[in-house]
Design goal:
Translation Initiation Factor IF3, Ubiquitin-like (UB roll), alpha+beta, single chain, 42% helix
């Protein structure tokens, strides 16, 4: 019994007495089974071990964040390269990146400039990332979401 062996079917009074003798708790493990299954254990220690396991599991998990990078239709070359470097860093950290071109005022008449920028980003990131869908126009923003190729390979 002390080493985890099964006792068999015992009435509740006797089970509580057995637990009290050892200064442990009687814990119901499977209440829906006939007869219900109980364990004699130190319940406080059990809860402590469960919380430790949860902390370790939480520490090991990696959350994916959605980072955003904004371009304008008239973004200059140096600014483009600077932002592209940051996009590559974000993808290297395992995050998804939403690249969008924001239009203001009369720039809405020249959406082809936004398409041109997004296509250029798509070409420059072809070796590292792949767009999840086609470019999407949301109000005054044209956007594209990129996922790292290593993340896509892991899913398949």
């Amino acid at each position: 019994m002390a080493d985890g062996e099964q006792v068999g079917i015992v009435n509740i009074k006797k089970a509580l007495e057995m637990a009290a003798e050892r200064n442990l708790d009687l814990v119901e493990v499977a209440p829906t089974v006939k007869p219900p299954v109980c364990k004699i254990m130190d319940f406080g220690k059990y809860l402590y071990e469960q919380s430790k396991k949860a902390k370790v599991a939480k520490k090991k998990q990696h959350t994916i964040h959605l980072k955003e990078m904004r371009f304008r239709p008239k973004t200059e070359e140096h600014d483009y390269q600077f932002k592209l470097k940051h996009i590559i860093d974000f993808l290297g950290q395992g995050n998804k990146v939403k690249v969008y071109v924001e239009f203001r005022g009369r720039e809405m008449a020249h959406r082809e400039l936004g398409v041109k920028i997004l296509n250029r980003v798509k070409e420059d990131l072809a070796a590292l990332a792949e767009p999840e869908a086609d470019s999407l126009m949301e109000g005054r923003r044209m956007s594209l979401i990129f996922s790292s190729l290593k993340d896509l390979k892991a899913k398949t």
